[in-house]
Specification:
The complex is a heterodimer of chains A (180) and B (372).
Chain A lengths: L4 E8 L2 H13 L7 E4 L7 H5 L6 H27 L12 H27 L23 E6 L7 H9 L5 E6 L2
Antiparallel strand pairs in A: 1-3, 1-4, 2-3
Chain B lengths: L8 H24 L1 H32 L2 H5 L1 H8 L2 H7 L1 H5 L1 H4 L18 H24 L4 H26 L12 H22 L1 H4 L5 H32 L2 H11 L4 H19 L2 H5 L1 H23 L13 H33 L10
The chains are: A alpha+beta (180), B mainly alpha (372).
Chain lengths: 180, 372
């Protein structure tokens, strides 16, 4: 064992086996933050099976929405009513109803941008190289195979015991993934 | 048909209250202050008819989209939609006293340049046609409800008919109170408001204490909460866009409707709608936890139902009460009268709808195969 292990990767043939394997792995005491599942398409119930994780995405989207909306509305007021007031057909310089649509658009835009940013940051993307890519079996994760990864940094992780446990889930294969 | 007969003491009591209130409103009100009494009656009729039509439209939407949410709210929606024949009878006072109520009748100049359209007889014919079409849709749709494919085939044209007739009916009943005013967004806004009210009513029933522990899962409540959020956003968008386009153009023909409603003391009612038909439900329904909690969702749905009621009041009543916010005693009588009658019928129909759809569900029918 000269190579440090990134984790152990178990391969399954369909989504039901994947779901069952994830449930039993979590029941066996492995932490939610150290068990990962890979599937070619979204599997209903997989999130719940993996267990509750704290997502920062909604928080950052809310910040983006409030910040973007408030700033845009303030900017419209400042530019039209304070910095450069001009008379448009006798309307008040602070035309509050007319300022709402741009503020709404910016609310949505900033919420989405911060949400995408939070997803990328949380998933540690972009990243061109990852230990999993060294595994030959893993190539089929995007077409027709389902994988459960138990990461080596889980306190319950033991190369032999975890391998034996994963074998009991009747996978197609269990392979070691070396740390890059 | 025995679902129409009152069975419980509460139903008989509601029927009694309804008769007393309607007699007071129509007999005393008409002799005392005919125009205002009919105005109160019109707004109550408008709200409860909208609740029934909105329910039918929501049922039709579900027949096309599918999904578990619709199977759980089918009994209350079906019960509300089946009251359309009752509401067609409730239209009779409006049709009989059209000349008393609407300002475009009588004087030929009042309706110019819409003279041929806003004529008494044509108005009555149109209202009769709306109800005939709606009841036709209801009968055809409920007849095919047991079969998903046939229900879908009836629902698709039914929804097109709903779009057109709700637009025309809302223009006839509400917009023509201000004869020279027009807005192309009004019908759609009213139709969305009716769907919102129907969805709020169904959600109230689904999330209320009696049903909480038995059938409704938190996933279904989540879906219903999202639907409410969607209707709130759609209504708010249309209502605001109508205000914005009229405000920014500021043309005398168009702005009269809003000057009355936003510059007199009616504006407090407008703020009430902004707060309770948009801001508060929007903020609460953003939360995933609130949508999955029956108690919270029920409170929000009841609030939206009350706000929809206030919305109907805001759309109708200021039109002929130009002096600012004012209430007449008939404003209480008319909704209590029509509302109690509606409730009495709805409870009976709900009981019938529940027994039908529960028995078919246990026999391996609808609830077994929710798709989506």
């Amino acid at each position: 064992m000269s190579v440090r292990l990134h984790g152990l990767l178990a391969e399954f043939a369909d989504d039901r086996q994947l779901l069952e394997a994830v449930r039993r792995t979590r029941d066996a005491g492995y932490f939610a933050s150290c068990v990962e599942a890979y599937s070619p398409y979204p599997v209903e119930g997989l999130d719940q099976a993996l267990g509750a994780r704290h997502h920062w995405v909604p928080f950052w989207m809310l910040i983006g929405a409030i910040g973007g909306g408030t700033f845009t509305y303030w900017l419209e007021w400042y530019s039209a009513a304070v910095n450069y007031p001009i008379n448009v057909g006798g309307r008040p310089t602070f035309s509050w109803p007319a300022f709402i649509p741009p503020a709404v658009e910016m609310t949505i835009l900033c919420a989405v941008l911060l949400g995408v940013g939070a997803v990328l940051f949380g998933a540690r993307l972009p990243r061109v190289c990852h230990s999993l890519f060294e595994s030959h079996e893993f190539e089929r994760a995007t077409s027709d195979r389902f994988f459960v990864l138990v990461r080596g940094d889980d306190p319950h992780f033991d190369p032999l015991a975890t391998q034996r446990f994963l074998e009991t889930l009747s996978p197609l294969s269990v392979v070691e993934v070396a740390e890059e | 048909m025995n679902a129409w007969l009152p069975r419980t003491l509460a139903q008989w009591f509601a029927l009694l209250i309804s008769i007393v209130a309607l007699v007071a409103c129509l007999l005393l009100g008409l002799s005392h202050e005919p125009k205002q009494a009919l105005l109160s009656y019109l707004f109550a009729f408008f709200f409860f008819t909208g609740l029934s039509i909105g329910s039918l439209a929501l049922l039709m939407i579900h027949a096309i989209t599918g999904g578990a949410w619709g199977d759980f709210i089918r009994p209350p929606l079906l019960a509300a939609a089946r009251l359309l024949p009752l509401m067609s009878l409730a239209a009779i006072p409006v049709l009989v006293w059209t000349r008393v109520l609407y300002p475009w009748t009588g004087s030929p100049s009042g309706a110019q340049p819409y003279g041929w359209y806003l004529a008494d007889t044509f108005f009555v014919i149109r209202t009769v046609v709306y109800f005939v079409v709606w009841i036709g849709c209801l009968v055809a749709f409920t007849h095919n409800l047991g079969d998903r494919v046939r229900a879908r085939r009836t629902a698709a044209p039914g929804l097109i008919v709903f779009g057109v007739t709700s637009l025309l009916a809302s223009v006839d009943w509400a917009v023509s109170l201000t004869p020279h005013w027009h807005s192309s967004m009004f019908g759609m806004m009213v139709g969305t408001g009716w769907l919102l009210a129907a969805c709020a009513l169904a959600t109230t029933v689904a999330a209320s204490r009696r049903d909480r522990d038995t059938v409704v899962s938190s996933d279904v409540l989540h879906d219903l909460g999202n639907m409410l959020l969607m209707f709130v956003l759609a209504w708010s968008y249309l209502a605001f866009m109508q205000y914005l386009t009229i405000w920014i153009a500021d043309l005398p023909d168009e702005n009269a409707w809003y000057i009355l409603r936003t510059l007199t003391s009616w504006r407090y009612l407008a703020w009430f709608l902004v707060a309770f038909n948009f801001a508060l439900p929007f903020a609460v329904l953003l939360s995933r936890a609130a949508k999955r909690n029956p108690a919270w969702l029920c409170k929000i749905a009841v609030m939206l139902l009350v706000a929809s009621f206030a919305d109907a009041f805001w759309l109708i009543v200021p039109g002929l009460r130009a002096g600012g916010f004012a209430l007449r005693w008939t404003d209480l009588c008319a909704p209590v009268g029509i509302g109690a009658l509606w409730w009495c019928g709805w409870v009976g129909q709900l009981r019938a709808a529940r027994s039908t759809w529960t028995s078919s569900a246990t026999a391996g029918g609808e609830l077994e195969h929710p798709h989506g």
